[in-house]
Amino acid sequence: MRRYVFNGNIETLKREYYDVIIVGSGIAGLYTALNLDKKLRCAVLSKAEIEKSSSWLAQGGIAAVVSKEDKAQCHFHDTIVAGAGLCDEESVKVLVNEGPGDIQQLMAMNVPFDLSEEGDLHITREGGHTRNRIVHCGGDATGRETVKTLAAIASTRSNISLLENVFLSDILTSQDKAAGVIVADKDGYKVMVSPNVVISTGGIGQVYAHTTNPIGATGDGIAAALRAGANVRNMEFIQFHPTAFYKPDESGQSFLISEAVRGEGGILRNIQGECFMKGKHPMKDLAPRDIVTRAIAEEMIKTNGKYVFVDITSKSEEFLVKRFPTIFNECKKHGINISKQWIPVYPVQHYLMGGIAVNLHSMTNIKGLYVTGESSCTGVHGANRLASNSLLECMVFGRRCAQHINKNKHEASYDYKFQNITVENSNLDITHLKKTIKHIMVQKGGIARNGTGLREGLEQVGGILNDLNIIEFKTRESIELFNIAIIAGAILEAAVARNSNVGAHFRMDA
Ligand SMILES: Cc1cc2nc3c(=O)[nH]c(=O)nc-3n(C[C@H](O)[C@H](O)[C@H](O)COP(=O)(O)OP(=O)(O)OC[C@H]3O[C@@H](n4cnc5c(N)ncnc54)[C@H](O)[C@@H]3O)c2cc1C
Question: Using a 6 Å cutoff on CB, does residue 213 contact ligand 1?
Answer without folding.
Answer: yes
